[in-house]
């Protein structure tokens, strides 16, 4: 069969990696976030879309750059009606702003439209923190309850409680924790914290023992 140089050229073109779609500001925004933040903001934007009447639409198919200031105002109103905390409302507004910033950056909206979106303020005010100081005796009681559980979940839960409490790790930092990030000799864990910063967390011997027990069992 004769060699066709045009066929090789077409094959080379097809095999080239595709560039990001600049018409999808949501994807561009999420790609800039750390994995834990990406998961949170995806949930937030999905809920925002549901509240704006797009419950049956994949959030990646929504033309986010067509949002108007009135849409964001309506979103804030629904959050207020549902008595969402001011910090949570700010999270929703900041997520929308982040997407619209990417839309403006790629010439999908005007600077004037961006300023109008950014001028919308979330609900003001504060809420008392729902958390509480955890007594050491409570942790011991939880660990004893896990030890009394004959199911595999008992050892698993003991490992989770021990590492979270023992290292002071945030829940968001533990979501994507992998074995490659754990140094058993140093009893340390390398995690991705807020601001996409790598951090080293240390845990006591008893916490690593609970983790080792679970890993050996599974």
From TrEMBL:
Record GO biological process: DNA integration; DNA recombination
Every Tyr recombinase domain range: 129-218
Source superkingdom: Bacteria
PROSITE patterns: CB, TYR_RECOMBINASE
GO molecular function: DNA binding
Record keywords, A-Z: DNA integration, DNA recombination, DNA-binding
Protein name as catalogued: Phage integrase
């Amino acid at each position: 069969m004769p060699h066709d140089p045009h066929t090789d050229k077409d094959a080379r073109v097809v095999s080239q990696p595709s560039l990001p779609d600049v018409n999808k500001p949501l994807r561009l925004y999420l790609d800039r976030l750390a994995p834990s933040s990406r998961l949170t903001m995806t949930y937030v934007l999905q809920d925002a879309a549901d509240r704006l009447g797009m419950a049956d639409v994949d959030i990646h198919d929504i033309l986010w750059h067509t949002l108007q200031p009135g849409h964001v105002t309506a979103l804030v109103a629904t959050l207020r009606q549902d008595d969402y905390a001011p910090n949570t409302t700010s999270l929703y507004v900041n997520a929308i702003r982040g997407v619209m910033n990417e839309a403006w950056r790629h010439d999908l909206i005007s600077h004037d439209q961006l300023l109008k979106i950014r001028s919308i303020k979330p609900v003001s005010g504060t809420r008392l923190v729902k958390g509480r100081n955890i007594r050491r005796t409570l942790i011991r009681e939880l660990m004893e309850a896990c030890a009394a559980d004959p199911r595999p979940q008992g050892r698993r839960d003991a490992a989770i409680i021990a590492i979270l409490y023992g290292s002071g790790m945030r829940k968001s930092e533990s979501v994507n924790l992998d074995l490659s990030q754990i140094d058993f000799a140093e009893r340390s864990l390398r995690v991705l914290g807020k601001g996409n910063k790598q951090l080293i967390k240390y845990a006591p011997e008893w916490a690593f023992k609970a983790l080792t027990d679970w890993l050996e069992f599974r």
